[in-house]
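Board notes (copied after class):
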Amino acid sequence: MNPRVVELVELLRIEQLERNLFRGVSGDVGSSAVFGGQVLGQAVMAAAATVEARNLHSLHAYFLRPGDKNARIVYEVERIRDGGSFTTRRVVAVQHGQPIFNFAASFHALQDGPAHAMPMPDVKRPEELLNEAQLRLTRLRRGPELRRVPLHDDMPIEIRPLRPLDPFEPEAQPPLDSWWMRVADRLPDDPALHQALLAYASDFGFVRTAMLPHGLSFYQPHVQVVSLDHAMWFHDTFRFDEWMLYATDSPAAGRARGFVRGSLFTLDGRLVASAAQEGLIRLRRGA
């Protein structure tokens, strides 16, 4: 298996300390604090470890404080309810004696019922597109600042954008963006792990869609961007070691906050998950 995929899977396979207490290590994706998607993924695994024979169908999370990359994270799971059809869990992530993350999750026994779903957008297939590592290499000649961006061609999550964007010279564009993504190697047959990895990856660049109309990017020194909350709904089963389309839009931004929505489709067009997030988008003065 791709060693970076092994590393990511091990990052999400947290240690159980007590019946409702878990501990995870912190990874590093180049950000100043712990990547929010990592805490999301680890919280999914902690909650799922306390549930039997039911699948996660929704999660709602708040990022309360920046995570310390040099410290482990303790996850406290509260068993709120075990009902006839639904199971509810609350998870609090703690570092240095303070909560950094608050998370609620609901699990549902599989049942039959009315079904419909919006169709997948008509877009190019992933084999027609370059991945992020290939796109970054094409920009190397434009300046030494690009060397701050990881250039590995074996990243654990492979991303192929439909509309490549220049992070150092962004142009104002409509608040719509889409990309294909998948884990870059075969995964075990563990539905909770696939959901945790999708939650992890769903935070990559999500709030960027709200920055597009303003010509802003994460790499501009005067721009501060922080995820404030994150929600997901899982509509159907999927494998995240197969291609998924992440189609995003931002209906509103203002008051230093941007709101984004995302729909996740399998390669054969099934809508299997939805996501929403609000992020802080603040312009620093004098930067």
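Comment from the instructor: The longest strand covers residues 271-283. The chain has a mean pLDDT of 92.
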